[in-house]
Automatic annotation (TrEMBL):
Pfam families: Acyl_transf_3. The keyword Coiled coil does not apply. This is Acyltransferase 3 domain-containing protein. GO terms for molecular function: acyltransferase activity, transferring groups other than amino-acyl groups.
Amino acid sequence: MTGKEELQDTARWVIPRDERLFIDRLRGLSIIRVVLVHLGLSWFFPPYSQFFHNLLPVLFFVSGAVSHFSYLRSMNAGHYLLKRFLSMVGPFYIIGFSSILIYCLINLQSPEFDFFAIVRWLTVIPSNADTPFPMGQVWFIHAMVIIVIISFPFFVISKASVAPLILCAIGSFIISLAHQATI
């Protein structure tokens, strides 16, 4: 494939401006929702708090929509995976190690870590017992890493046909309905 053909193929996978604007608005509303819930505002009006909690899947949906187009525009599968993992896990490692360094400088000692605590840190599933500070919201990064790993084969298959993505979406919807029925 020549450079011009590659450029035309890549241009095919660009999100149109109006759709990108819609996705950006959904992303913005989802982020505002996360901030409001983490500020405790979901408890302010208890009858409406469940509405805010039900909007969390929108953030995952928007992330998936953006991820699919990102995969389609990437040079190759390895480049896509490296870029996704660095963008998700990179800030976690930088902030985590910086926090530990600051803790060590302030307290003039390092927190006690065992081998399994380090493994949990590196796999983005640390518990509060592993750190001298709360890590409650890290579950989202861990969930996103799992979603990237699970969705990657579907992205590869979908370059030939979108039918697997449609079947996956329908299957996910049915599973979520079945799960809601058990709650």
